[in-house]
Amino acid sequence: MEHAPFGPEGAHIRWTGTAGAGDGGPPRAYVHGLGATSAVYHAHIAAVPALADRRSLFVDLPGHGISDRPADFGYTLEDHAAALAVALDAAKVRGAELIGHSMGGSVAIVLAVRRPELVSRLVLTEANLDPDPPLTAGSSRIAAYTEDAFVRGGGFEETLRRIGPVWRATVRLTDPTALHRSACALVRGTRPTMRRMLLGLGIPRTFLVGGHGEELGGREELTAAGVTVRTVPGAGHNVMFDNAPGFAAAVAGQP
């Protein structure tokens, strides 16, 4: 496990990783979604032979997994991107391929715009591109609580009872304050929006959609801007669990 200080004094962002089996190209950094952890969602993908030749980093964003959870931190998408940059700088990574799931994809977009030297390619899985996601989205349901009601009034516990066993496994490891502030940040979005930033980037970009998920809005606009949009069959929001071979092939750039 590696770590580096970020934000409030004494707080550290942490990651694990693999050295890779050879000189297969730029390192890959995997970034998890809201209430998740990177190794749980992506380590089995990085071990696939087509991907194992690269150095891989599994970074846990502030408030999630093994990273610290300072109370005096904003947990905005920009804050998460700045902390992720700290991790990549400490790991001496440049020109990485970022594989971001859901909220992690939004964070990856912000980082690619703010620190372009750190990112050579984006693979975004079911990423949040617009503010105000549907009320059925996990972030919107969490953000519907006030922070006090969520953290101290039973909202966190209600959420754990409501969600399914897969997400619950990592949500229960997430700091409630960080979870709520991160969810509010997703609902609020960025200025310009994540979609606008993604459209303006010049690096290779792939957007993955689960075949069983909701229809991707603005697909034609993304394609026209050079974003490769791929539907992974047999998958919902958690593409890497539902169709691991299809997800790994997309990350590797295979047809």
From TrEMBL:
<dbReference type="InterPro" id="IPR050228">
    <property type="entry name" value="Carboxylesterase_BioH"/>
</dbReference>
<dbReference type="InterPro" id="IPR000073">
    <property type="entry name" value="AB_hydrolase_1"/>
</dbReference>
<protein>
    <submittedName>
        <fullName>Alpha/beta hydrolase</fullName>
    </submittedName>
</protein>
<feature type="domain" description="AB hydrolase-1">
    <location>
        <begin position="31"/>
        <end position="144"/>
    </location>
</feature>
<dbReference type="InterPro" id="IPR029058">
    <property type="entry name" value="AB_hydrolase_fold"/>
</dbReference>
<keyword id="KW-0378">Hydrolase</keyword>
<dbReference type="GO" id="GO:0016787">
    <property type="term" value="F:hydrolase activity"/>
</dbReference>
<dbReference type="Pfam" id="PF00561">
    <property type="entry name" value="Abhydrolase_1"/>
</dbReference>
